[in-house]
Amino acid sequence: MKAKSKFDKFYKYVYIKIVCYYAIDMLLRIKKFKYKGEPNTMDCIFCKIANKSIPSNLLYEDEKMAIFKDLNPEAPIHLLAIPKKHISSLAEITEENSDVISHIFAKISELKSFLEIENDFRIVCNCGENSGQTVMHLHFHILSGRKLKWPPG
């Protein structure tokens, strides 16, 4: 059996240090993504839909926003309206980016018949993980097509 030299021990030590460094770095990135609301926009599914790098049931888009069908509908009509620019949640709305909110609501009202939204509809926006926000990109659920109950959750 061959005895390990100081050289072998040193490289094993360096290898373990590098693996530990990358593991800790990855855990910190996951924690930052999950709890701080600061995702990498390259990994954001709604950013990918907005820039058309993944397909969606897109119904409307302009330079500021997009509207598409929800993949897991909770009502006969369940659409999502998103800003194209990444904003994690309503908690990140500022004076500089607040115009996109009024733009989205004006477009929903303007496009009601085109989107086949009935006169009675609900718009829901969850803010944060505990409220039910599962995608950390600001989005509005547009629900219609049946009698909606209250309270919702």
Describe the structure.
- The chain is of the alpha+beta class and 153 residues long.
- Helices cover 32% and strands 16% of the residues.
- It has three helices and five strands, in the order H-H-E-E-E-H-E-E.
- A hairpin with a 7-residue loop joins strand 2 (65-69) and strand 3.
Strand content: 15-25%
Cα-atom radius of gyration: 22 Å
Helix content: 25-40%
Low-confidence stretches: 31-39
Major beta-sheet overview: 5 strands, antiparallel
Report the order of strands and helices.
HHEEEHEE
Structural class by helix and strand composition = alpha+beta
- Give me the side-by-side strand order of the main sheet: 1-2-3-5-4
Overall mean pLDDT: 83
Task: List the SSEs and their pairings.
Elements: H1 6-36, H2 45-50, E1 58-61, E2 65-69, E3 77-83, H3 99-110, E4 121-124, E5 140-144
Short key terms for the protein model shown above:
5-stranded antiparallel β-sheet; 16% strand; elongated; 153 residues; alpha+beta
What is shown here, in short?
The protein is 32% helix and 16% strand. The protein has 3 helices and 5 strands. A 5-stranded antiparallel β-sheet has the order 1-2-3-5-4, with helices on one face.
